[in-house]
Amino acid sequence: MSVEDRFSAALHNTARMWRLALDRRLRDLGVSQAGWVSIAYIAKTQGPLSQGELANLVQVEAATMVSTIDRLEKAGLVLRVASESDRRVKHVVLTPAGEVLYGKVRARADEMRRDILGHIEPEKLAMTADILENIQALIETP
């Protein structure tokens, strides 16, 4: 197997395994991967975030995001708030319960990150991050 094939397989499998491992750590919180990813983006974004912007960040179709937001809203974790400048636009904000859940998600994600990445030399980790960021930039550049 070529180094390029090994790299592609390792990248794909590691990303999938990382998400699955985090899902296992978050399972008892009662939120799906789509839910916790959405909550994390809402929490980390400065200022209002529209449903469409959230869909773009999570990299899902708008209809899929509507379903995810519906579930989160029903669970009392988010609210849809009409935009002050455009009544057609709905912003998604965390409720106090959503903020508490994000704190738990963040703590467990940080713990997992430390558990896994703590076994890798800091220099190698920095080099890997640089390489992955370069690849992202190459992919994003037309």
UniProtKB/TrEMBL annotation:
One of its GO terms (molecular function) is DNA-binding transcription factor activity. The keyword Disulfide bond does not apply. The lineage of its organism: Bacteria, Pseudomonadati, Pseudomonadota, Alphaproteobacteria, Caulobacterales. SMART domains: HTH_MARR (SM00347). Residues 4-137 form the HTH marR-type domain. Keywords: DNA-binding, Transcription, Transcription regulation. This is HTH marR-type domain-containing protein. Coiled coil: none annotated. One of its GO terms (biological process) is response to stress. InterPro entries: HTH_MarR-typ, MarR/SlyA-like, Tscrpt_reg_MarR-type_CS, WH-like_DNA-bd_sf, WH_DNA-bd_sf.
